[in-house]
Amino acid sequence: MKKKYLRAKYKKLRLNLTTETIEDLSLQIANQLLTLPIWDFSFYHLFLSIAEQKEVDTEPILHILQGKDKNVVLPKTDAPTNELINYLLTDTTVIKKNRWNIPEPQDGIIIEANKIEVVFVPLLAFDTSGHRVGYGKGFYDKFFATCQPDVLKVGLSFFEAEEKIEDTYQSDIPLDYCVTPKNSYSFRKS
């Protein structure tokens, strides 16, 4: 299926989820993450969920990261350039929603993308090859291009993989892993 169709399909599926279902599925996703070999790093990039879009709630993941004493890096969108500015989460970080209702840090200690080792990636859909469909603005594609080549990209999805996204581009950067409430997918080449 093509990205446009998948984007519409999964937005609709997510809108049908109740708050209780989102909480339960998000906790299952966080528990699935614990089975991945991603916990020996220091800098973890975590998006904060857009509640209005019924995204995976990343609060349980945040608690895991804090419990493991990891450095949590939060993105802030720079709309004119479609780029992410990344800030270290500290006790004094002020979080506010932007015009798209994305909770994001207002300022703080900027962390360069090449220091980030693991990125939790928001998405609408993904396929069995690790390609993903986002909202179509390209923020994460641009961000990945500035990261180290071996940065681990971990998608989070309420839904299982599609067989194939038909209109991927050679410049699309696939995920290394994707976690759903029931499964962990690995796309890493050995």
Automatic annotation (TrEMBL):
<keyword id="KW-0547">Nucleotide-binding</keyword>
<protein>
    <recommendedName>
        <fullName>5-formyltetrahydrofolate cyclo-ligase</fullName>
        <ecNumber>6.3.3.2</ecNumber>
    </recommendedName>
</protein>
<dbReference type="InterPro" id="IPR024185">
    <property type="entry name" value="FTHF_cligase-like_sf"/>
</dbReference>
<comment type="similarity">
    <text>Belongs to the 5-formyltetrahydrofolate cyclo-ligase family.</text>
</comment>
<dbReference type="Pfam" id="PF01812">
    <property type="entry name" value="5-FTHF_cyc-lig"/>
</dbReference>
<dbReference type="InterPro" id="IPR002698">
    <property type="entry name" value="FTHF_cligase"/>
</dbReference>
<keyword id="KW-0460">Magnesium</keyword>
<keyword id="KW-0479">Metal-binding</keyword>
<dbReference type="InterPro" id="IPR037171">
    <property type="entry name" value="NagB/RpiA_transferase-like"/>
</dbReference>
<keyword id="KW-0436">Ligase</keyword>
<dbReference type="GO" id="GO:0030272">
    <property type="term" value="F:5-formyltetrahydrofolate cyclo-ligase activity"/>
</dbReference>
<keyword id="KW-0067">ATP-binding</keyword>
